Amino acid sequence: MTNTTKGALFVVVSVLCWAITGNLGSFLFAQKAMTPAQMITIRMLATGIALIAYTHFRQPNPNYYIFKTPADVIRLIIFAIGGILFMQFFFFSAIQESNAPTATIMQYTGPFIVIISLSIYHRVWPRKIVLLAMLLSAIGTVLLLTHGDFSSISVTQKALFFGALSAIGYAFYNIVPIKLLLRYETPQVAGLAMLIAFVVLMVTTNPFAQSFIFDMETFLAMFFAIVMGTIFPFVAYLEGAKLIGPPRASILGSLEPLFSTLIAVFFLGAKFYPIDYVGVALVMASVIFLSLPDRHVNTEKIH
Q: Could you report how far apart the first and last alpha carbons of the chain are, in Å?
């Protein structure tokens, strides 16, 4: 097996695991009376501990200089709350109010928030291909949310609100930790942020005041969500992107809405209309356009 094939396989399997995890959340909320707060509290605690353990495995005596620099501590806290906690909590809240494919599509508007923010910060117009991608994504999202009937919206206001907040969380997740990742190990930063987010969620929501059904199905679903839905793809996706390059990895990553839709339809009985698949395809196309190299277009300065 060539490195390219291996890298592509790592990325595709990672994306499939993410799609399955989103739908497992939908299953747990509907069938086991679990709340999004309960699910991500367990997930963040287990994943945070695992990533810190992974850091120690790679580097037996890792340093924690991050806590000696006040500015980095502030960035870590913002990343934990505004990035990880916002992205995960509101993504799964949107799933609870709608379904996994719809929540995934709404979160996929996050990259455009990143692009617009960076364009304003650097005073550079987005590339023309990016503007086209934004248009395709907007049309695809509207088609999915309305089923093509523009006189009504097929999801609740809560789902839209949570989806928008998850997209903002996605933007924070990608922008805030940049300086931290240049100075410290990625698993260490992510692990510490997960644990901080866990503490904040425990203190602010008391998630386990409400009970849920805990049986073998719940255990297996949560085990998959933690191991195959978080820890494995965290390592495998990065390895795959290293082997095939970030642009190709991003293109393959656009398969997540498709995988999520197929799983929801065939395994959870979700109802999708033909126009919904058109919406999913347009969002996937927008991600592919975002991955095209800069040399194909010109950029213009904002004066």
A: 50
